[in-house]
Fold these 3 entries.
Entry 1:
Amino acid sequence: MRTDVVVIGAGPAGLLLAHLLAAEGIESIVIEARTKQYVAARIRAGILESASVDLLRAAGLGAGIEAEGEEHRGIYLQWPHERHHLDFTALVGRSVWVYGQTQLQADLVAASEAAGRPVFYDASGAALHDLDSDRPYVTFTDADGNGQRIDALAVAGCDGAFGPSRAAMPDGQRETWERVYPYSWLGILADVPPSTDELIYAWHPDGFALHSMRSATVSRLYLQVPNGTNAADWPDDRIWDTLATRLGHGQDGWRLTPGPITERSVLPMRSFVQSPMSHGRLFLAGDAAHTVPPTGAKGLNLAIADVALLAPALSDLVRDNDAKLADAYSGTALRRVWRAEHFSWWMTTMLHASGDPFDAQLQLSQLRWVTASAAGAAGLAENYTGLPIGF
Ligand SMILES: Cc1cc2nc3c(=O)[nH]c(=O)nc-3n(C[C@H](O)[C@H](O)[C@H](O)COP(=O)(O)OP(=O)(O)OC[C@H]3O[C@@H](n4cnc5c(N)ncnc54)[C@H](O)[C@@H]3O)c2cc1C
């Protein structure tokens, strides 16, 4: 097969990139290691920054967000006996939207199918070749066991943290940074209306808790747990009791309503960046190039911001052989990536119990400043709602 751009990975980065390229008249073929059903069912992120929503709307992908998304003006930050609301819209004139990654994935699959764009699901053994030439190609085995080769003008590595694209960059020419945190999140989905109108981020001496949501009838909640935690060791009652304690059930009359838990999983917390994000005709986007701990709600938004930069860069490269934007892609994307890396690290270390009493006092001091000072609050709000794409 022959196409303009081979996209490896049909997650949000890969499918959105194919969509944006098509709008520019650029052909692509997407290959995905998992089945369509598996990719559609993955429960992951749920907050879209205002710039992400603007981009999705401009790309004709806003209908689902309008119909089912929920715009939030801010978040609550709390610690025992105190809860404070940060009003992002008042602080920086921007909001965020609650819209599950599963919903966005469904929108992207629907758009891809409506346009008849080729996606090879269940593809194994993807390998990248001749990336230093201007005729790279990708080989893989399709779902029926047939060997396939796709020749292209560029390869987009949108294959997440465990795909082959990241490692296809030559060893001496890439640099990586990593921070592994000494705690994980136990996340649940529950069939119960949220007990809050906006997200609650709770500092607690026993550990962090987050009350998020996916819709008016589905709640998403998280607990800080030690690394190596087995979700099976957390029966429903233990989860709800721990959430009630950390989220302040009973505080100023606020109540946490429990409900049937439909999904539970443990998510390790990690920061990771690989630089540069391009090599020859290979371009990395999304989790293929970077990981953030989810406290700042940045992973999905960074993937969207990367492909918003990459699509015009690849269009110029493929259509006009103009490499200006493609050459600038890595440097431009990494500026925003490192800002999000810092914000995600900052939110994580401000809110999670480390076991060190000195850390705890610093965290409380930071939380008081962020909630009491307009300058502190505006800084958090500006980063949480997302800096402009290309920042
Ligand atoms: C378990 C988990 C929970 C998360 N929870 C949250 C959260 O609560 N809040 C938050 O903000 N963010 C969360 N994130 C982060 C967010 O979901 C990601 O940042 C986002 O999915 C990035 O999109 P992506 O398209 O770059 O990567 P992905 O969504 O990872 O997509 C990459 C795709 O590439 C495919 N692939 C991999 N290897 C190959 C191969 N060899 N060949 C072909 N295809 C391949 C994968 O199957 C996958 O479909 C979570 C991430 C994970 C992994």
Entry 2:
Amino acid sequence: MFTLIDLPYPIDALEPVISARTLTFHHGKHLQGYVDNLNKLIAGTEFGTMPLEEIVQKATGGMFNNAGQILNHNLYFTQFRPAAVIPSPEGVKESPLQAQIVRQWGSLAAFQAAFVTAGATLFGSGWVWLQADADGALTIGQYPGADNPAAHGLKPLLTFDVWEHAYYLDYQNRRPAHLEALWGIVDWSVVEERYGR
Ligand SMILES: [Fe+2]
């Protein structure tokens, strides 16, 4: 049985980038719904005792969709921290991840621009990911629906949710503006830790 993760910050901590109202629905209703759905689907099946990532790699249909959405949201919600305490991109200390980003994109700013473009141009609902292969090489992935890097043998590092439920209450149709604003609350220490895992 899976349970809803706790947010590692107060419900209003990410304002104004993500409002308490959006988080209340996104975490408390949407993610809770995926958790409830998956628990019903796996009950009494071979998937009932599997770790989430294994279900994502083996399941299809509704089971894949609900498991994928839990994995995606768990990584999404735990990669943010309140804007007041996030270091600026310039202040992020030298790190293997930052060095690899600069090697591949030239600068953190150039990577961020490419990432936002990938999210803005993803048609319909889905996720944009920074992902790593077994050698540590990075790519930006556009995934529709509940799909994600873990389902394709890649390491999920950082993700922006481009489902409308992630931003519509605060930004309406302005998806690119929402994605740009998210840089102000990304906790790079979390992303770095995922890269080193
Ligand atoms: Fe979402």
Entry 3:
Amino acid sequence: MLFALGLCLIVGCKGGDAKEGNAAQRSGAASSTVASSTGFSGTAAYNYAKTQVDFGPRVPGSPAAKKAGDWIIQQMRSRADTVIVQSFTHTTADGKKLQLRNILARFRPNLNERVLYLTHWDSRPISEAATTDAERKMPVPGANDGASGVGMFVALGDALKKTKPNVGVDLLFTDGEDYGQFGPPEVDVLIGSKYFAKHLPSPDYKPIYGVLWDMIGDKDLRIPYEMLSFQQAPEVVSRVWQTAADLGYSDVFVQESGGDVTDDHVPLLNAGLKVIDVIDLTYPPHHTPNDTMDKISAKSLATVGDVATALVTRK
Ligand SMILES: [Zn+2]
């Protein structure tokens, strides 16, 4: 693994792509079927993602966001040991007051040795990557960009209820990730993650590592290294890619550069937490009204869910 990481450095890894910039190369085939040994259900994850999408676009301040946030809290209260809701108001650059909620579901909250997983649950108010003016004004349904991570987390909650993790696990659902512009300059994005970085669950909160799981449902799933993660937390990248390889998913978790991505892990890296981004940005419906349930699959969610489960349940 370390060799492979080194190889990537030798062959050169491009950087500078913002999350909202051009996607990288087209992706290859999805993983061959591997029987899940972790107890994670991709079908359940898909159905939970569908519930999110069925609420409507989860744009901060909308009735759909209220319902979806309430639903996440309710689901996690029946799975996790503790659920903490961080409610806060964010004033946007144009003076609008947004009511936002980060939701933190904790398993084995008394353990000092912890792993932090995060994903955003909001969806984007505009579809700037769409082809027509009318479409560009529409909100993104966010099946992959918003709901895929939520679906995976709720299904992970099912798995962790059955098989206790061997470390403390914190599942953080961030709000307001995708609200404004990624820039540069960056305006009104990564809002929940920035808030969490300044309002950690305890002053000495220091998970052994963290993983942001974003856009992980693409039918055509292929996850290269995100290069800010690779540069700032290579040991975490190595751990996650090695676990994927152990499960037979090397064709999905590929040892290639995916460029730099401006995403929810950045405020946490800046706060000194070792958090990496697992993301497949090669997704044609990204930030368009076509980011719908038919573009994601239970199989892709099962692949990523297996890795997320194995990381915290295997010795
Ligand atoms: Zn997005």
